[in-house]
Amino acid sequence: MADHDPGSKKPATQVVTGGRRKIWTGAVVNPPVWRGSTHLYDDVAHLREGLKSNDDGRFFYGRRGSPTQWSLAEALTEMEPGAAGTMLYPSGVAAISCALLAVLQPGDEVLLTDSSYDPSRSFADVFLKRMGISARYYDPLIGADVATLFGPNTKAILMESPGSLTFEVQDVPAICRAAQAAGIVTLLDNTWATSRFFPALEHGVDITIVAATKYIVGHSDVMMGAVTTHDKYWTRLRRIAQQLGQVVSPDDAYLAARGLRTLDVRLRQHEASALQIARWLKQRPEVGLVLHPALPDCPGHEIWKRDFKGASGLFSFELSDGDDQSRAAFIDALTLFGIGYSWGGFESLALPVDPAKHRTATQWAGTGPLVRLNIGLEDPDDLMADIAKGFEHYQSAQS
Ligand SMILES: Cc1ncc(COP(=O)(O)O)c(C=O)c1O
């Protein structure tokens, strides 16, 4: 196997080979877990030599990582054409917060999509506000018109496409073009698609973020975030992460790297199963809108068709004529779907979601209660049978 040759490999090959340098793996296949805080030097001269540079991939001290973390970061960088590097964080929220802190300073303004993940909103509304950084929200379907919102202090835009509750697909290239013309930095929460289905930097994004907790890890057993960027922002991103003491444990990095090896095949199965179930739901009398980016009900579906290479396994649907109580009866009756936060794991999950609560720039126009499904790797026929049973309980709760 070539030691480090990202070349032009296809995605399924990249996730298998990425970051597996011989100096990091030794004789085994996946880079082992290098646990350690102290890294030992040969002598004082060697110790002093170590202070002269701050490169990745060099032993220094545990907070700067070890081959286990470097290998994972390198694999994620290789998956994102145009990237200079990737920083790892102990959660997706830490990744989003640190990426924003890397590009904003007191007096600045950040624009966020109104469909933002709620903790991103609260970081902007509470923490950034305390630092003298203001936040304004925009309609996720705004496209190039985002330029009409730019003020003299607008310095960054945080996009999330599709939104993780309501799935509006944004015109990311148009927003990035407008931002670039005005010298504004663009950040994207790309957790839903990952670089596999939406290579963000190629579409004009400056800084791309994933909650690796979801599809990268893939097994619902590790929290992690990753931020990948090109040359212009790489040094700044890395410096801020180091100043804030961001580091992931080698054990977690090992598990994430192990998850990564199967990312391509998992995503393709999530995509196929979720699409099958979404199309089936669309035919059901109990269902109103099906908010799946690959289906026409979803706002921004045409943009999804234009820009994305695939769809992952998370989407929402509306129960027609239902209320909170009948929705709870439906979800409680499911046996193959767990009830819990997060997504991107191998197991299916169902969650009641209420987007209206989180909106300020737009109004959520849905008419029935929403259910968000994470379609896992179970057989879709079993999942549909489970949902059909849930609908019986939903009907009984209605009558
Ligand atoms: C779209 C999106 N971004 C970021 C996060 C945060 O990731 P984490 O839970 O790893 O902090 C989540 C978590 O659910 C999410 O759904």
From TrEMBL:
Keyword annotations: Lyase, Pyridoxal phosphate
Catalytic activity: L,L-cystathionine + H2O = L-homocysteine + pyruvate + NH4(+); an S-substituted L-cysteine + H2O = a thiol + pyruvate + NH4(+)
GO MF terms, alphabetically ordered: lyase activity
InterPro entries assigned: Cys/Met-Metab_PyrdxlP-dep_enz (IPR000277), Cys_b_lyase_bac (IPR006233), Cys_met_metab_PP (IPR054542), PyrdxlP-dep_Trfase (IPR015424), PyrdxlP-dep_Trfase_major (IPR015421), PyrdxlP-dep_Trfase_small (IPR015422)
Secretion signal, residue range per the UniProt entry: none
Pathway annotation from the record: Amino-acid biosynthesis; L-methionine biosynthesis via de novo pathway; L-homocysteine from L-cystathionine: step 1/1
Enzyme class: lyase
Cofactor(s) the record lists: pyridoxal 5'-phosphate
Statement: the UniProt record of this protein carries the keyword Nucleotide-binding: no
EC number(s) reported in the record: 4.4.1.8
Family assignment from sequence similarity: Belongs to the trans-sulfuration enzymes family.
Protein name in the entry: Cystathionine beta-lyase
Organism of origin: Parasphingorhabdus flavimaris
Organism ancestry: Bacteria, Pseudomonadati, Pseudomonadota, Alphaproteobacteria, Sphingomonadales
